[in-house]
Amino acid sequence: MTQARQDPHWVAMSGSYGCLPDYCEAFGSYAEALESLRVLFELEEHAALEAALASEGYAELGRDFGADYAEIIPCHCARPSVHSSGGGEP
């Protein structure tokens, strides 16, 4: 059975290359997803990384952050909770 295409939700994730994400949460808006990663990695102190993530949805972080990358992607699945470790809907 095919599920209907849903309005997008936004998946914020980060982790190490070649591994499942260490952090993965779904949000109702891009701004909320961006804010979660901004707070998680204290990006207000790293304007270039914050700007890259805001404009491109992806930033290379490096070892100092404990993760190689941070990323925000749109998703149209019917169950946003599958992306969240907490299991909540955006």
What would your notes on this structure say?
The protein has 90 residues and is α+β, with helices and mostly antiparallel strands. It has one domain (9-77). Helices cover 23% and strands 29% of the residues. The chain has two helices and four strands. The chain has a four-stranded antiparallel sheet. Strand 3 and strand 4 form a beta hairpin.
For the record, give the distance between the C-alpha atoms at the N and C termini, rounded to a whole number: 24 Å
Helical content class: 10-25%
The number of domains is 1
How much of the residues is beta strand, in percent? 25-35%
* Order of helical and strand elements: EEHHEE
The main β sheet shows up as:
4 strands, antiparallel
Instruction: Tally the beta strands.
Output: 4
- Roughly what is the average pLDDT, rounded to an integer? 87
How many helices does DSSP assign?
2
- Give the radius of gyration: 13 Å
State the shape. globular
Structural class: alpha+beta
Which regions have little confidence, pLDDT < 50, spanning 5+ residues? Answer: none
Strands of the widest sheet, in order across it, are 2-1-4-3
